TrEMBL record, chain A:
PANTHER family: ABC TRANSPORTER PERMEASE PROTEIN (PTHR43370:SF2), SUGAR ABC TRANSPORTER INTEGRAL MEMBRANE PROTEIN-RELATED (PTHR43370). The chain crosses the membrane at residues 6-27, 39-60, 66-88, 95-115, 145-166, 187-207, 213-239, 246-264, 276-293. One of its GO terms (cellular component) is plasma membrane. It is found in: Cell membrane. InterPro entries: ABC_transp_permease (IPR001851). It is a multi-pass membrane protein. The keyword Membrane applies. Keywords: Cell membrane, Membrane, Transmembrane, Transmembrane helix. It comes from the Bacteria. It comes from Oceaniradius stylonematis. GO terms for molecular function: transmembrane transporter activity. This is ABC transporter permease. It holds the Pfam family BPD_transp_2.
Length: 311, 537
């Protein structure tokens, strides 16, 4: 194994980790807000997939990556709007609606892709990168950390901004009250439905952005079912992170690293059997769940719809 | 806003002022829920500088009235006024904006948030928590009302009394004009209740109006400047400050008891059943105790004896341990101390099925949830407590024909109105479900039956039929424990009446047909007023 830690190996590992982590991070941050507010958003996988499709479509038609991201956000938002109306306004079961949205988005995007892109499989040009002068030239971490698309920095910035908002404003407290004991927020003059609606829409926007990143930056094309459970991993991260955005980042990096390790090990020409290598991400998931799963503390009113005066 | 719009949408500010309505006026308010009129044509005036006590039993409409004032419900008829202006309180925030703060019976704090966060709950999300301002105000509150709270403690770690102080502090921080305290002493120690009383007096001296809801007479007299008594949703009477000052405590309590439990028509002759009690004791309960918690009253030192052919009434305000007593006797609730004896056999550790086998039956008050499976046909419900046993099950195989025959017999004997025995029981009326359950409990060798609120929620005809049935059961020599919140029912049927309050038996009285005097004496015990020892058994 001595020859494994070459610069090429480490660099590709780190690059892969970040590429794989960003969509999970965005989804996890979104889901975290929704779960804080008491809405278990199982539809996030569908929101990501819709974002990936609409994001790719917008980028492909306009030849602008930025409009592509906007398209992704809108796709995620629209899907989240369905969830917000059905689950928050009308109080339907969040899990049933979430699964329905995910299945629906999978079918719809696969169908649209079949008619539009299945003969040509068009690709987007390689994205421009934001080089940070000086830092990009560092060995190993230079190219992997400091030569990324701006959206990567946006995701990292989101971690900091959300952490500050939760700590320094009433936002964190209002969300937690909505998720922990919505009746208490209601009688204190807060707006339970409003904050939950906003949280679900935010989740949709973040998931849509994550999906657009997956299609436009990581892959450069749209393939049906391409999210491959990234949204669900986001749900797990949000549940394990106990309300802290930084923990979502750490979790996303661990999962990202485990995913990219499979590629990196193969690039480095490891003699390890392929089966073992491909098992690694799942082993990492199990390990994390064993270590931290029991300490996950979920809001009391998670997945419970709120109706004033109901006992 | 143009005049025509104002006319069309009858908003609060456009309505004419209501003179002499105090800080809050409740004007002929009625609120109905399916099947019951919770608040019936109630008018109240809340004056600043007064503790206004709303007194009444559970189900008297107190909590509904609180819900209306807090903006959780809107009246079906009548209206509210604030400072003499007719007002709609359509949401909790409308109520808060009108200067009304409510401390609900059950804590409305978020247990995982800190005290400071709970104090600022409801503020716009983008603002920063105003820590310095709240610290300054809390220092003031500490000086004036000796309210002292650890701002950074997690709310769920504090005692119930401290949590209540958070809610009171929150009301004061909002500069409320009216503070509503709903059953505020029910979770406090006696000392905590005294402190709360003293604090209320300080608050009203500062010009606040306090609405204090309770069902305890002594507290009403001690803490209240004005007392309004609610009975079955309607206002039964009101005692103003002058009237209260002119009375001794005993006079005042007597008057309140008369308002709460007396009969308006003054009729004293309750139709009283001839006793059929026999000599032998069937059921003996000795120093029984069960675990309680924040929501459920535990039993303490309950001792009762039931003779064959006797009806022993259990009187009390709902939620004082009646259900726990019934369940402990039926074997559905673990017992922490004491023993239960049936026909000379210790059954304290016996299972539900064993108790049923020897003839001890329990008819729950929760007909739909606990008593029956709504989607199952009537026939299955009649054998629900005999699943797997012969003759309805033989070697583990269900015998539908026998079950159907049994059900048809029961339907005929207890005159159940149902299309057929295959109808799902959930489609029957409450009275008919009750008949099926009664038939089920009386089938086989029943020797004693515990009835928990057997006529609750039934119509008059079914109430009469049920009472008749209970009399017949006793006449046949079975023992009956009759738990009821309806004093008339208990006085009409029981040989003796035990009064339960706070999980303890406050006294057992012979039902000598004593009429009004007996009724008031029981009412006094139900409300937790002191009863002299010589009347205890």
């Amino acid at each position: 194994m001595g020859g494994l830690l070459t610069e090429a190996f480490l660099s590709s590992l780190l690059t892969g980790a970040i590429v794989a982590a960003v969509p999970i991070l965005l989804a996890g941050l979104g889901e975290q807000m929704s779960e804080k507010a008491g809405v278990l958003n199982v539809g996030i996988e569908g929101m990501m997939l819709m974002g990936a499709y609409t994001g790719f479509l917008a980028a492909f038609q306009t030849s602008s990556l930025w409009l592509g991201f906007l398209g992704g956000i809108l796709g995620g938002l629209l899907t989240a709007l369905v969830m917000a109306i059905l689950c928050v306004r009308m109080g339907l079961n969040q899990i049933v609606i979430g699964i329905g949205l995910t299945l629906g988005a999978e079918g719809l995007t696969a169908l649209l892709h079949h008619f539009q892109f299945s003969r040509s499989y068009p690709r987007l040009p390689a994205p421009e990168r934001l080089d940070i002068p000086g830092l990009t030239d560092l060995p190993v971490i230079g190219p992997s950390l400091f030569a990324r698309h701006p959206i990567v920095y946006f995701a990292l910035l989101a971690v900091v901004v959300l952490a500050l908002l939760y700590r320094r404003t009433n936002l964190g407290m209002t969300l937690r009250a909505a998720g922990e004991r919505p009746a208490a927020l209601d009688v204190a003059g807060g707006n339970v439905v409003g904050i939950r609606l906003a949280a679900v829409l935010f989740t949709g926007a973040m998931a849509g952005l994550g999906g657009a990143y997956l299609a436009n930056i990581a892959a450069g094309l749209f393939i049906p079912f391409m999210t491959g459970g990234a949204g669900f991993i986001g749900i797990v991260l949000a549940m394990l992170a106990r309300g802290r955005p930084l923990w979502v980042l750490i979790g996303a990096l661990i999962f990202g690293a485990a995913l990219s390790l499979t590629t990196a090990l193969q690039v480095a020409g490891s003699t390890m059997p392929t089966e073992v290598i491909q098992m690694l991400p799942f082993a990492a998931v199990m390990l994390v769940l064993v270590l931290f799963g029991r300490r996950a503390k979920l809001p009391s009113a998670l997945a419970v719809s709120y109706e004033r005066g109901a006992r | 806003m143009s005049t025509s719009v104002a006319m069309a949408t009858e908003t609060a500010n456009d309505l004419p002022p209501v003179p002499g309505a105090g800080v809050i006026g409740v004007h002929r308010v009625t609120k109905r829920f399916p099947g019951v009129t919770a608040v019936d044509d109630v008018s109240l005036t809340i004056h600043p500088g007064e503790v206004h006590v709303l007194l009444g039993e559970n189900g008297a409409g107190k909590s509904t009235l609180v819900g209306i004032l807090a903006g959780l419900q809107e009246p079906d008829e009548g209206y509210l006024s604030v400072d003499g202006n007719r007002t709609r309180l359509a949401s909790p925030s409308a109520s808060l904006n009108a200067g009304i703060s409510t401390v609900f019976q059950h804590s409305m704090l978020v247990p995982t948030l800190t005290v400071l966060e709970n104090l600022t709950l409801g503020a716009p999300w983008y603002e920063r928590p105003p820590r310095a301002r709240i610290e300054a105000r809390m220092a003031e509150l500490k000086r004036e009302f000796s309210l002292s709270l650890p701002l950074d403690a997690v709310t769920g770690d504090l005692s119930l009394g401290q949590q209540q102080q958070i809610e009171i502090a929150r009301a004061l921080l909002r500069d409320s004009k009216v503070l509503i305290l709903d059953e505020a002493t029910s979770m406090l120690t006696p000392q905590g209740a005294q402190e709360l009383g003293a604090r209320m007096q300080k608050l009203v001296k500062g010009g606040l109006a306090v609405i204090f809801i309770t069902h305890k007479l002594a507290e009403a007299y001690q803490f209240g400047d004005r007392i309004s008594v609610l009975k079955q949703g309607a206002l039964a009477g009101e005692m103003g400050p002058e009237q209260l000052k002119s009375m001794t405590e005993k006079q005042a309590v007597d008057e309140i008891v008369r308002l709460m439990f007396g009969r308006e028509d003054g009729a004293t002759s309750t139709e009283h059943r001839q006793s059929t009690a026999r000599a032998e004791t069937l059921l003996r309960i000795e120093q029984l105790a069960t675990e309680g918690d924040a929501d459920v009253v535990g039993l303490e030192n309950v001792s009762l004896a039931l003779k064959a052919g006797e009806i022993l009434g259990i009187a009390g305000i709902d939620g004082n341990g009646q259900k726990q007593l019934a369940e402990a006797v039926a074997g559905q609730r673990p017992v922490s101390a004491g023993r239960v004896e049936f026909d000379g056999i210790d059954i304290t550790r016996a299972t539900v099925a064993q108790r049923r086998e020897i003839g001890l039956r329990y008819l729950t008050d929760d007909r739909l949830e606990e008593g029956s499976v709504g989607a199952f046909p009537v026939s299955e419900n009649t054998v629900l407590k005999d699943v797997g046993r012969p003759p309805f099950w033989v070697n583990g195989i269900e015998r539908p024909a026998r079950i159907a025959q049994h059900a048809r017999d029961l339907i005929a004997r207890f005159s159940v109105y149902t299309p057929s025995e295959t109808t799902p029981i959930g489609r029957l009326s409450g009275g008919n479900i009750q008949k099926v359950l009664l038939g089920r409990e009386l089938s086989g060798e029943a020797r004693a039956v515990v009835f928990n609120k057997p006529t609750y929620g039934l119509d008059l005809q079914n109430i009469d039929a049920s009472r008749q049935r209970i009399s017949e059961i006793a006449a046949q020599g079975m023992g009956v424990v009759l738990i009821s919140t309806d004093l008339d029912e208990l006085m009409a049927l029981s040989d003796r009446i035990a009064v339960i309050e706070g999980g303890r038996i406050r006294g057992v009285v012979d039902n000598d047909g004593g009429g009004e005097a007996l009724r008031l004496r029981i009412g006094r015990m139900m409300a937790g007023a002191e009863e002299h020892m010589e009347t205890m058994e």
